[in-house]
Write a structure and sequence with these properties.
Number of helices: 12
CATH architecture of the largest domain: Roll
Distance between the termini: 33 Å
Structural class: alpha+beta
Largest sheet: 9 strands, antiparallel
Number of strands: 21
Strand content: 25-35%
CATH topology of the largest domain: Pnp Oxidase, Chain A
CATH class of the largest domain: Mainly Beta
Radius of gyration: 23 Å
Shape: globular
Number of domains: 2
Length: 453
């Protein structure tokens, strides 16, 4: 059975020793971030802050919820090994959302003069250069004004006043909905849902600019419909079991400075974004406010896993020799590792050239053989150190589209991309035989691990 809400998942994580509680009072300005980042660097568990400075006992904050592939696998009810394959398999069956009259997110409703975003919500200020607090784990939900289809995705949201936000909606489908509304010179009804169960949060970042809607994708991943309920002041449906929902209107043809904000790429970004006028805040009577701390593993695991799946499909269709693909956490998903079962020595380099050309976010790529664990950085480095020669195994592509989050890119975000062929020459396979314990003994030890202690 899929998790009903965030709290149910956190209870599960606690049972698995994958969550710690911080009972000491923590300041939402910088201090909570510092604790979460230290836990992230150590590969530690999710962190539940039970006492937030300036807020009552009914408010808590959670960070690093999906900070490891293990916890994401728990959230999607699969295994680390099968994460990508299971995601792709479940996407094949569409499970549309189910509309309900109300839900726990409506237990408290604040409107009009009662609205004061920072009085109600413990929005974190993450880094010393940030201009203000930012909502970082909010799923922005809207409707396309032409088609009526729901649009959703995680976008950075800046707190600018008691009832004023800035929403940087640069990517579809939410950007498409906003652009259509702006063409009509009309505000766009939006809601920001915070504190969702893991499958719905994961689905919100899946690349699906042409549909289906993200809640249908979430239902597919959950194998059960997501329950949606209508908002109080805008024509948008949101997850009924969310912890918090902020409702408002994204105003047309009005931009204000957004930032600086310490982004997922590890640098501050200042831009302009539309103004979001807040009409209402609804939440549970006791709610858990979720944060995704920028430039941590959670960012990369949440976004990168579905990207891996979609990119793998594209690459494998063009180059069938590619058997698996991984986007590395440390690079912010800018580095790809390809497992290749090559039939010719050119095939690995063809795969490298293809992935570097087809995706602007991939800056460097490494091709390895099937005997290398692409999820183990130690083994990938080993392959680079012992199976790669710079004068003959490097693929260099100049003046390709790069990432807007990479400050080293040139004019119009162009960049040079490099591929590293760290696969064994087919004429010298035996020379590169990897040491290992016999497979049957490894399997025996794995199956009987607990009996050794």
């Amino acid at each position: 059975m899929p998790f009903k809400d965030l709290k149910e998942f956190l209870d599960f994580l606690e049972e698995k020793n994958e969550l710690v509680r911080i009972r000491k009072e923590v300041d939402p300005k910088y201090e909570g971030t510092a604790i979460a980042k230290k836990m992230d660097k150590e590969g530690g568990p999710a962190v539940l802050f039970e006492k937030i400075k300036g807020y009552g006992p009914e408010v808590s904050v959670v960070a690093n919820v999906l900070g490891t592939r293990r916890r994401l696998a728990f959230g999607l009810e699969t295994t680390e090994k099968n994460l990508v394959d299971e995601y792709l398999k479940r996407r094949e069956k569409l499970v549309p959302p189910k509309k309900v009259n109300t839900g726990p997110v409506k237990e408290v409703v604040e409107k009009g003069e009662d609205i004061d975003i920072l009085r109600s919500l413990p929005v974190f200020t993450y880094h010393e250069g940030d201009a203000s607090p930012y909502i970082s784990a909010g799923v922005v939900v809207s409707k396309n004004p032409e088609t009526g289809l729901l649009a959703a995705g995680i976008h950075r949201v800046q707190v600018r006043g008691k009832n004023k936000l800035g929403a940087l909606v640069l990517t579809p489908p939410v950007s498409t909905a906003y652009n259509k509304a702006e063409e009509m010179d009309k505000p766009l009804d939006v809601a920001i849902a915070v504190g969702l169960e893991p499958a719905t949060l994961f689905a919100s970042v899946v690349l699906a600019p042409m549909g289906p809607d993200k809640f249908t994708i979430a239902g597919s991943i959950r194998n059960e419909p997501v329950e949606l309920t209508g908002c109080e002041t805008v024509d948008v449906e949101v997850p009924a079991y969310a912890e918090v929902v902020v409702e408002g209107k994204l105003l047309p043809k009005l931009r204000e400075v957004d930032g600086p904000f310490g982004e997922t790429g590890g640098y501050y970004v200042t831009t302009e974004s539309p103004v979001l006028q807040v009409n209402a805040i609804t939440h549970r009577s006791r709610f858990i406010y979720q944060v995704i701390v920028p430039w941590t593993a959670e960012n990369m695991i949440l976004f990168g896993t579905s990207w891996e799946g979609e990119l793998y499909k594209t690459v494998k269709t063009a180059i069938p020799a590619v058997k698996a693909l991984h986007l590395t956490v440390g690079s912010g998903c800018a580095h790809a590792v390809l497992m290749v079962k090559k039939r010719t020595d050119e095939e690995a380099r063809q795969a490298l050239a293809f992935i570097l050309s087809v995706n602007p976010f991939i800056k460097h790529a490494v091709a390895v053989d099937e005997d290398v664990d692409i999820y183990n950085p130690k083994e990938v480095e080993w392959a680079l150190a012992t199976r790669f020669q710079g004068d003959k195994d490097m693929v260099v592509l100049n003046q390709l589209p790069g990432s807007v989050l990479d400050p080293s890119t040139g004019k119009n975000w162009t960049t040079t991309k490099i591929g590293f062929d760290a696969t064994k020459p087919l004429t010298e396979v035996n020379k590169y035989r990897k040491v290992r314990v016999p497979e049957e003994i490894e399997k025996k030890v794995e199956e009987n691990w607990d009996t050794y202690f």
